[in-house]
Amino acid sequence: MDADAAAEIPSTATFEPVEGDGVGAHRLLAHDPSPAWQAEALRAARGLGLAAIFGAALGLREGGVAIVHHAAVVPAAIGALLGLGVPALHILLALTAAPIGALDLGGMCARAIAAMGMLLAGLSAPIALLMVTAESPASAAAAGGAGLVAAGALALRRFWVELSDAASGADARTRALTSMLAIGFSGFAVLLVGRIWWNVLALVGGAS
Question: Residue 186's closest CA among 48, 85, 76?
């Protein structure tokens, strides 16, 4: 190789990050410096879509229509919580004078859903393999239920931490009330989402 050819070779190489390098995951979970309803709704929708992948994996146990059924029910339960629980929580937070606006609360919910969806999507492959190979229905149901519980716990923890951080600048009374509301909301979320999954998902709750 002559000197002129060698000179044309750059001394350092730069690589632009792509979605597959984890940048997409980071953006899905990161705080938006300029939040907007459209962006947060899209974030939540992506999280629900990822959760649907796990639902489809659960449905492989029975196959056919069960795949679509489970893929729809897993995110639908989360959607029910968004429609029934979050508006009530926002009203109660406003009554306590917590410094948390509607868009702030929406962003917290969207990031929690995104985290949940990412975990469920990551578990989809091993769960799918287990669904089609496990001889015991109880083992398959236990594994599927454990995945849902783990993802739900992750989402609630993330939501709790962000809610606490948002109220950290308020007075002691407001922080205490916010914590109480967070506990109540978490309990409601467990009862509502868990009830839907248990009653409607054939694999988990034995519904026909």
Answer: 85
Kindly report the number of other CB atoms within 10 A of residue 37's CB atom: 12
Q: How far apart are the first and last CA of the chain?
A: 73
CA dist 72 and 68 (Å) reads: 6
Task: Look up the pTM and report it.
Answer: 0.82
Distance CA 34, CA 188 (A): 30
Round the CA-based radius of gyration of the chain to a whole number and report it.
Answer: 21
Long-range contacts of 180-188 (CB under 8 A, 24+ apart): 181/89, 181/92, 181/93, 181/96, 185/85, 185/89, 186/156, 186/159, 186/160, 188/81, 188/85
User: Whose CA is closest to 112, among 185, 10, 20?
Assistant: 185
Q: Are 62 and 134 in contact (CB under 8 A)?
A: no
**Segment 131-178, tens digit of pLDDT:** 999 888 888 889 999 999 999 999 999 999 999 999 988 899 999 999
CA 182 to each of CA 92, 100, 157: distance values in angstroms, whole numbers, following the listed order:
10, 13, 10
